[in-house]
Automatic annotation (TrEMBL):
Protein name per the record: Hydrogenase
Primary location recorded for the protein, binned into one broad class: other
Keyword Transmembrane tagged: yes
One term of GO molecular function: ferredoxin hydrogenase activity
InterPro entries noted in UniProt: Cytochrome-c3_hydrogenase_C, NADH_UbQ_OxRdtase-like_20kDa, NiFe-Hase_small_C_sf, NiFe_Hase_small_N_sf, NiFe_hydrogenase_ssu, TAT_signal
Protein's cellular compartments: Cell envelope
TM spans (from-to): 405-426
Domain NADH:ubiquinone oxidoreductase-like 20kDa subunit residues, every copy: 136-282
Keyword tags: 3Fe-4S, 4Fe-4S, Iron, Iron-sulfur, Membrane, Metal-binding, Oxidoreductase, Signal, Transmembrane, Transmembrane helix
Domain Cytochrome-c3 hydrogenase C-terminal: 302-384
């Protein structure tokens, strides 16, 4: 039976024993020989209510071990914290508030807030490699060009970047030597972040980097092999983005298509720094990827649909839409669905985390969502300023999770949204007609009463 199950499922049962000073436990995991993508049956962070003390012991032990590895003493830990945040005009109060918000966003109890703060401090000392492939460097720009940086952006600015072409001083052979040294010295420990799609056409020769003329494909594969955690930041790195749009002459693909290691996708164009830092902080806490959806995105950041958390949602339910840029509906901040907003088809936390110093997102700025955190958004979501009314399948209702929704159901749900829009619009017009009819009847009745009164007065 065991052998037949192995053949049928393509997976093996494996016991891993994790031992540290505080506790020890056996984790049962399934892994696929081909993909090396792990699915944990039990997660101490996600089943805290089952054994909270054990979860805290695991996290505390890991943080203590990392602090011993990256810091010389408690004094060194405190000095690093002060240098990073005090020198960046972030008050202690602001940092505590940010820590509490991030703890909540990661769906952790408040007791984890001090541990999140420790993890953020450790993150600034963790070996870090950032690769740029086929991209516009929009994510890099979003993180670096901030007038009033948030704690998340400060952490990215102070993180121990051992290799990042856009900001590092060394160039050519020296830069490549620095990258190779980090990969060798911190095998299994360094964080790898990749920005941009990876061209695979002509064996990757559409993109060559560095003094040795290596292809981006070759560099990505060799660097990802021994990384502690791998993160694809932005839509291009996650799913191929614009470089992979039709007809895709360079054969560009997302990071997960060129490595058999698990990849955490942080899509959007650009990605929000909060989502990247939150994911890396969770990795520091537990040493593995957070819970992901079917598209490789952290559930804590991408489990909510923009449409559901949009402040214009009430207007959608009431059938109140912007019909033309600058019309009365636009001035009243009505729903932007009829102007092409893809919020109903997009899973992200833009409406919660927001951009530009946590103050705005597309719909608040007056334009609809373009669905940039979804796969193939450039092909599937265009034209951006027209609603998806041309799908041929009808599925009533639009309430679903990201996994239930699925890539194939995009058109179907589009019809559901369109049907809802049309239905609410018709219903609203019908209600308006009924109200107008009642008003007219009341006016006529009032007019007749007035005439009767006049005739009675004349008789008198």
């Amino acid at each position: 039976m065991g052998k037949s199950n192995e053949k049928n499922n393509g997976a093996k049962e494996k016991k891993i024993k994790i031992t540290n000073k505080s506790c020890s436990d056996e984790y049962s995991e399934k892994y696929d020989d081909k993909t090396d993508k792990t699915i944990f049956k039990w997660d101490p962070l996600r089943n805290i209510s089952d054994n909270p003390d054990e979860a805290l012991n695991i996290v505390d032990s890991r943080l203590t071990n990392l602090e011993k590895e990256y810091f010389k003493s408690q004094k060194d830990i405190d000095e690093n914290f002060n240098n990073v945040f005090s020198a960046s005009s972030v008050s202690r109060r602001e940092f505590i508030q940010w820590t509490a918000l991030l703890t909540s966003a990661l769906m952790l109890p408040t007791i984890f807030a001090p541990r999140v703060a420790r993890a953020a401090n450790i993150l600034t000392r963790t070996p870090f490699i950032w690769l740029d492939m086929s991209d516009c460097m929009g994510n890099t720009e979003a993180f670096l060009r901030t007038a009033h940086p948030t704690p998340a952006e400060i952490i990215l600015n102070y993180v121990s970047v051992d290799y990042m072409e856009s900001i590092m001083v060394p160039a050519g052979y020296q830069a490549e030597a620095r990258r190779d040294e980090t990969v060798k010295k911190y095998k299994g420990k360094y964080i790898l972040v990749v920005e941009g799609a990876i061209p695979t056409g002509m064996n990757g020769k559409f993109l060559t980097i560095g003094a040795k003329g290596k292809t981006g494909l070759e560099i990505t594969k060799s660097t990802a092999k021994n990384a502690g955690v791998i993160v694809a930041v932005g839509n291009c790195a996650s799913y191929g983005g614009i470089p992979a749009a039709y007809p895709n002459p360079t054969g560009s693909v997302g990071l997960s298509s060129v490595t058999n290691r698990q990849v955490i996708n942080i899509p959007a164009c650009p990605a929000n720094p909060v989502n990247l830092v939150g994911t890396l902080v969770e990795y520091i806490l537990v040493g593995k990827a957070p819970m992901l959806d079917s598209l490789g995105r952290p559930l804590w950041a991408y489990s909510g649909r923009l449409h559901d958390n949009c402040y214009r949602r009430g207007h959608f339910e009431a059938g109140e839409y912007v019909k033309q840029w600058g019309d009365d509906g636009a001035k009243k901040q009505y729903c932007l669905y009829m102007m092409g907003c893809k919020g109903p088809f997009t899973w992200n936390n833009c409406t919660v985390a927001q951009y530009n110093q946590d103050m705005s997102f597309p719909m608040r700025a007056g334009h609809g969502c373009i669905g940039c955190s979804e796969p193939a958004f450039w092909d599937r979501m265009t034209p951006f300023e027209k609603p998806n009314l041309d799908a041929k399948i009808f599925i009533p209702g639009v309430e679903a999770t990201a996994d239930e929704f699925g890539v194939a159901l995009f058109g179907a749900a589009g019809v559901g949204m369109a049907a809802h829009a049309i239905y609410t619009g018709v219903k609203r017009r019908k209600n308006n007609k009924e109200k107008d009819g009642k008003r007219n009847k009341e006016k006529e009745k009032g007019g007749n009463n007035g005439k009767d009164n006049d005739s009675n007065e004349n008789k008198k």
